[in-house]
């Protein structure tokens, strides 16, 4: 194989799919290279336990996608090709825990209606503070979401965001908002609420942004999570996440995108300081533009034979976050919670907020299996009953505080010397189920089959999940926003002309928004590509 295209995209996760679709719709000749035998990266579903039980293998919930620019650009095309979402108009998320003082169960539930959610808070001042939190973000939404969708190393784009804030009359109060934004989630809720509900409800959601409750920028991500779910709910793909990928694949093939599956990208080809294509395990492709949806370690330590000065060393220092684990259960019947209101909630956290989640994060950071992990309980069948046979249910459990190479067990019960063996996986599943049984007794007895994906399995399934981190690297402030992935290579445009870096390890970071793919595609479609300009320059004049 030795072909020429306009754009080669390495990898086929959400950002690659978005970029490929937008570029192809603009008339570009695009080729996707994917080492696996399917598209989608961490977007996948299958009957992982028993026939008839459809599980989203990795990611599942799409509020960031349906609220983002990529969906605005592509949603109509995807729905025309079979994409259908199931969503909620009432309860959207909840958290349950044992009261640290009394041991009694305490539950807090968020509804799509923010006023209804606020009214459920026990302290009147917290009710007002909750709506004020959302109002503050709303007044500054142009700045916040503008930053998420901009190249922060571009003076012009940053100036445009700042000018917009001034024009809207938001300059007064900006310093206080910025101060709140860089707070940790724990400090943010402490500064605004007197009761426990807001902390217990939203602090565990910081895990889904690659953060913990004691890390900077929780003060902006916590209200962003709340606003997203109030505004867009928790949509899941009807029939499983693979239907989402199928809609994208149909769109790509309809627009001439070439898809190479089972093809390993071996080297990004460069002449001088300009990209010329990609060498793969199936041959070489010539292209004037290459989008690399890979880890910084892979891009600067492997794919480029002569990376720009300083980038290889910086990539080695790039820090990945905690590992994660997925547990899939086939149940003989839906979960029956002690608080029956939780039976209707799509996603429940087992956490008391910053305290239990903060402790579990610290234990995982120290290489220990948490004694009381935060358990994310996804009840997709609440929204999409087609996921399981009638009367039965699936359960999607996510653990985001798990060491890749455990050195010990915080509870002092499990043996970890041999790493994530099948025995350790089952033992940790027992701990997770025991935690669930506190609030939904009898669940263990309904389990028909289980499937466990440990951090080592995540890394094996997707090379971008370095050390089992599904979020493309720690999202702490020192390697986020202006500095993602690191100062020597921040931004999507690299020092090599025509080479762009996209994916979770680039701005705006992890999540299913497709943000970096959309941002780069918009830049490449706003002006003729370098490849097209060269062709035009070589075209004979008609004079």
Any descriptors?
543 residues, alpha/beta, seven-stranded mixed β-sheet, 20 helices, 20 strands, globular, disordered C terminus
Number of strands: 20
Helical content class: 25-40%
Proportion of strand residues? 15-25%
The total count of helices amounts to: 20
Shape by Cα distribution: globular
Structural class: alpha/beta
Major pleated sheet: 7 strands, mixed
Query: How many angstroms does the end-to-end distance come to?
Result: 38 Å
Radius of gyration: 23 Å
Unreliable spans: 527-543
Average predicted confidence as pLDDT:
92
Describe this structure in words.
By secondary structure, this protein is α/β, with parallel strands linked by helices. Helix content is 36%, strand content 20%. The chain has helices at 14-25, 63-66, 69-80, 114-119, 124-139, 141-148, 155-167, 174-181, 185-192, 197-202, 218-232, 242-254, 296-303, 311-317, 354-365, 380-383, 422-437, 455-461, 515-526, 530-538, and strands spanning 2-10, 30-34, 45-46, 55-56, 85-86, 91-98, 105-111, 236-237, 258-261, 265-271, 274-280, 283-292, 323-331, 347-350, 368-369, 375-378, 393-402, 408-409, 447-453, 499-501. The protein is globular. Mean pLDDT is 92; it is low at 527-543.
């Amino acid at each position: 194989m030795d072909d020429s295209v306009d754009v080669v995209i390495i990898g086929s996760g959400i950002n690659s799919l978005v970029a490929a679709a937008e570029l192809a719709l603009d008339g570009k000749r695009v080729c996707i290279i994917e080492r696996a035998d399917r598209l989608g990266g961490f977007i996948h579903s299958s009957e992982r336990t028993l026939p008839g039980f459809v599980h989203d293998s990795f990611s599942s919930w799409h509020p960031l996608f349906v609220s983002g620019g990529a969906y605005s650009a592509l949603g109509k095309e995807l729905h025309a090709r079979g994409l259908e979402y199931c969503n909620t108009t009432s309860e959207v998320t909840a958290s349950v825990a044992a009261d640290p003082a009394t041991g009694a169960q305490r539950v807090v539930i968020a509804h799509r209606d923010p006023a209804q959610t606020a009214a459920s808070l026990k302290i009147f001042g917290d009710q007002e503070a909750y709506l004020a939190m959302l109002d503050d973000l709303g007044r500054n939404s142009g700045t916040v979401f503008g930053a998420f969708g901009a190249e922060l190393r571009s003076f012009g784009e940053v100036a445009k965001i700042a000018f917009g804030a001034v024009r809207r009359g938001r300059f007064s109060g900006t310093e206080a908002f910025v101060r709140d934004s860089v707070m940790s989630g724990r400090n943010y809720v402490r500064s605004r609420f007197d009761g426990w509900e807001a902390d217990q409800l939203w602090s565990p959601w910081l895990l889904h942004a690659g953060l913990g409750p004691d890390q900077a920028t929780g003060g902006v991500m916590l209200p962003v999570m709340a606003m997203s779910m109030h505004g867009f709910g928790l949509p899941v793909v009807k029939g499983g996440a693979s239907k989402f990928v199928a809609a994208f694949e149909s769109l790509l093939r309809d627009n001439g995108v070439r898809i190479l599956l089972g093809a390993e990208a071996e080297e990004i080809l460069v002449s001088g300081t300009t990209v010329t294509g990609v060498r793969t395990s199936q041959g070489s492709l010539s292209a004037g533009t290459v989008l690399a949806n890979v880890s910084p370690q892979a891009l600067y330590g492997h794919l480029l034979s002569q990376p720009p000065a300083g980038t290889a060393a910086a990539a080695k220092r790039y820090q990945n976050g905690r590992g994660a684990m997925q547990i899939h259960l086939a149940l003989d019947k839906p979960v029956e919670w002690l608080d029956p209101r939780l039976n209707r909630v799509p996603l429940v956290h087992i956490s008391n907020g910053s305290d239990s989640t903060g402790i579990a994060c610290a234990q995982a950071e120290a290489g220990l299996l948490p004694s009381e992990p935060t358990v994310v309980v996804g009840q997709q069948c609440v929204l999409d009953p087609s996921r399981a046979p009638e009367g039965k249910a699936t359960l999607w459990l996510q653990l985001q505080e798990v060491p890749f190479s455990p050195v010990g067990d915080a509870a002092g019960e499990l043996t970890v010397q041999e790493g994530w063996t099948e025995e350790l996986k089952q033992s940790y599943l027992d701990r997770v189920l025991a935690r669930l049984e506190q609030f939904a007794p009898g669940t263990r007895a309904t389990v028909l089959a289980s499937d466990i994906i440990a951090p080592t399995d995540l890394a094996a399934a997707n090379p971008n999940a370095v050390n089992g981190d599904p979020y493309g690297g720690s999202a702490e402030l020192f390697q986020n926003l202006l500095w993602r992935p690191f100062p020597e290579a921040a931004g999507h445009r690299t020092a090599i002309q025509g080479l762009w870096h996209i994916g979770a390890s680039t701005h705006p970071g992890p999540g299913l928004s497709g943000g970096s793919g959309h941002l780069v595609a918009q830049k490449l479609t706003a002006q003729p590509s370098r490849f097209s300009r060269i062709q035009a320059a070589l075209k004979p004049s008609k004079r």
